[in-house]
Write a structure and sequence with these properties.
alpha/beta, Alpha-D-Glucose-1,6-Bisphosphate, Chain A, domain 3, 6-stranded mixed sheet, globular, metal-binding, isomerase, magnesium, A-D-PHexomutase_a/b/a-I/II/III, phosphoprotein
Length: 463
C-alpha cells in the first residue's frame, strides 16, 4: 500500500485504527509535518478516544526527531488546540476523528495562528512525503533527519484556563439574567471545556454525558443527526431549561435547542451571531463589516447581513474555503449550515463554544424565550441535507440541470455542485468527495413549495 488517499482527506487525516493507520504512521506524519512546514516548534493536543494519547505522542516524537520543539497540551477540544496555535503562534496538530465512531481517529493540522492546512495548503505534500516512506507491505519507516539536525524537546503546557478566558473576553456577558442550560457533551470534549468556560456565568448547567469516553456509550457525538439530539430535547423539557446545547466529539461544533426542545437551525444561529459581531465591529469603528456564509445556509443570513448595512460573502462548503475568504475579505464572522462558526478574533478559526456564548448573551440580555428571539430568522422552509446513494453522480446532476436550468427566471451556478434558484426558492445538489452520494438542500418561502421541489429533484436523482 503506497497510496494514502483513503486516509488523507481534503482537510485532514482520518481513518480506522489500527486497520488503516497506527502510531508508526502518526510518527511519520509528525516528521513530514515539520519538514513540509519548516517548523521549529509545534503544539499537539488530543481528544478522549482510546487511541488518541498513543497517536499524539508518536506524532510528537516524529516532529521532535526532525528538530521541532513540541508543546503537548494533552486533552483538549479542537478549538482549544486552535487557541494554543493562535496564542503561541505555532503550527498545531489535533488528534481527533470528530463525530466519527470510536474505531476512527485522525489529525487536524494547522499552521501558526490556526491557519488551515488542507490539500492545497500543505496536506498534499505531507501525504506524498509519508507515501515515499511506505514499503510495499504498508509499513512505514521514517528516515533519519538530516545530519546536524538536533532533536527537539518535548514539554507540556496547560491551556484550558487561557482558552476559557480568551473566549469570555470576546463576548459582553454583563447584565445577563440567570439561565438554566442543558448541555449534552456526547461523552466528548465538551465535558472538558464547558465547565471551564461557563463556570463564571450566571448559568445553571444541567450536564449530560460529560464523562470523557471515546467509545461513545450513550449516542454518537454527532448532533447534525437528529436522533442524537433526542436526549437533549427531552432533558430541556423535563427540567424546564431555557435552552439546550449539544457539542460534537471534538467540541468545535455546537447545536442549539430552544426552550420547547425544538432545534434552532445553524442558519438562524449564524444570523443571530452575525448581528452581534457586526454591532461589535461597528462599535470598534468598522463602517461596513463583512460576514461569510456558505452556499447552503439559508437566504435569511445574507438578508440579515444586508439589512444591517454589512457585506455578505457566499462561499463553497468547507472550513478551508471559509477561512481563505475570511482572510481575503477580513470578515468579522463566518457561519456554515453544519454549525461551524468562525470568528476573526479567534484567528479566523471555528469555535462552537464562542457561538454558544453569543447565544447565551443574546438570550440573557432580554426577557423573551429563545424561540421568540429566533423567530425573526425563521423566514423560509428548509429540507435539511438529504443524501442519496448514486453511482453516476455527474450524470444525475446533469439531468437535474437539464430539467431546471432552462426554466424562465431561474439562475444557475456551479460554485460548489449545482445551485438553481428561482424567485422564492433554491436548491443545491453536491457530490460527496469521499462517498457515492449526492447531497440535496432545498429552501422555499413556504413548506408546500419546498416539499414539492424536494420531491421532484429527488425523483430525478433516485430514478
Amino acid at each position: 500500500m503506497r497510496d494514502l488517499s483513503q486516509l488523507v482527506k481534503a482537510y485532514d487525516v482520518r481513518g480506522v485504527v489500527p486497520d488503516q493507520w497506527d502510531a508508526s504512521y502518526a510518527r511519520a506524519f509528525g516528521a513530514a509535518f515539520v519538514q513540509v512546514l519548516g517548523a521549529s516548534a509545534v503544539v499537539v493536543g488530543h481528544d478522549m478516544r482510546p487511541s488518541s494519547p498513543e497517536l499524539s505522542r508518536a506524532f510528537a516524537e516524529g516532529a521532535a526527531a526532525y528538530g521541532a520543539d513540541v508543546v503537548e497540551i494533552g486533552l483538549c477540544s479542537t478549538d482549544q488546540l486552535y487557541y494554543a496555535s493562535g496564542s503561541l503562534d505555532l503550527p498545531g496538530a489535533m488528534f481527533t476523528a470528530s463525530h466519527n465512531p470510536a474505531q476512527y481517529n485522525g489529525i487536524k493540522l494547522c499552521k501558526a495562528g490556526a491557519a488551515p492546512v488542507g490539500q492545497d495548503t500543505g496536506l498534499t505534500e505531507i501525504r506524498e512525503l509519508v507515501e515515499s516512506w511506505l514499503a510495499e507491505d504498508g509499513t512505514v519507516t521514517v528516515p533519519a533527519a538530516a545530519e546536524g539536525t538536533a532533536p527537539g524537546t518535548l514539554s507540556s503546557r496547560e491551556t484550558l484556563d487561557g482558552y476559557a478566558a480568551h473566549l469570555l473576553s470576546l463576548v459582553d456577558l454583563s447584565g445577563m439574567r440567570p439561565l438554566k442550560v442543558a448541555v449534552d457533551a456526547g461523552n466528548g470534549m465538551g465535558g472538558h471545556t464547558v465547565p471551564a468556560v461557563l463556570a463564571a456565568l450566571p448559568v445553571e448547567v444541567v450536564p449530560m454525558y460529560f464523562e470523557l469516553d471515546g467509545t461513545f456509550p450513550n449516542h454518537e457525538a454527532n448532533p447534525l443527526d437528529p436522533k442524537n439530539l433526542v436526549d437533549l430535547q427531552a432533558k430541556v423539557r423535563e427540567v424546564g431549561a431555557d435552552l439546550g446545547l449539544a457539542f460534537d466529539g471534538d467540541a468545535d461544533r455546537c447545536f442549539v435547542v430552544d426552550e420547547r426542545g425544538e432545534p434552532v437551525s445553524p442558519s438562524a444561529i449564524t444570523a443571530l451571531v452575525a448581528e452581534r459581531e457586526i454591532a461589535r465591529a461597528r462599535a470598534a469603528g468598522e463602517e461596513k463589516p463583512t460576514v461569510i456564509h456558505n452556499l447552503i445556509t439559508s437566504w435569511t443570513v445574507p438578508q440579515v447581513v444586508t439589512d444591517l448595512g454589512a457585506v455578505p460573502v457566499r462561499t463553497r462548503v468547507g472550513h478551508s474555503f471559509i477561512k481563505e475568504e475570511m482572510a481575503r475579505t477580513d470578515a468579522v464572522f463566518g457561519g456554515e449550515h453544519s454549525a461551524h462558526y468562525y470568528f476573526r478574533d479567534f484567528w479566523r478559526a471555528d469555535t462552537g463554544m464562542l457561538a454558544a456564548l453569543h447565544v447565551l448573551a443574546a438570550l440573557g440580555g432580554q426577557e423573551q424565550p429563545l424561540s421568540q428571539l429566533c423567530a425573526r430568522y425563521d423566514r423560509y422552509a428548509a429540507s435539511g441535507e438529504i443524501n442519496s446513494t448514486v453511482a453516476d453522480q455527474a450524470g444525475r446532476t446533469a439531468e437535474v440541470r437539464a430539467a431546471y436550468g432552462a426554466l424562465e427566471g431561474v439562475t444557475v451556478d456551479e460554485l460548489d455542485g449545482l445551485t438553481v434558484a428561482g424567485a422564492d426558492w433554491w436548491f443545491n445538489l453536491r457530490a460527496s468527495n469521499t462517498e457515492p452520494l449526492l447531497r440535496l438542500n432545498v429552501e422555499a418561502e413556504d413548506p408546500a413549495r419546498m416539499a414539492e421541489l424536494r420531491d421532484a429533484v429527488l425523483a430525478i436523482v433516485r430514478a
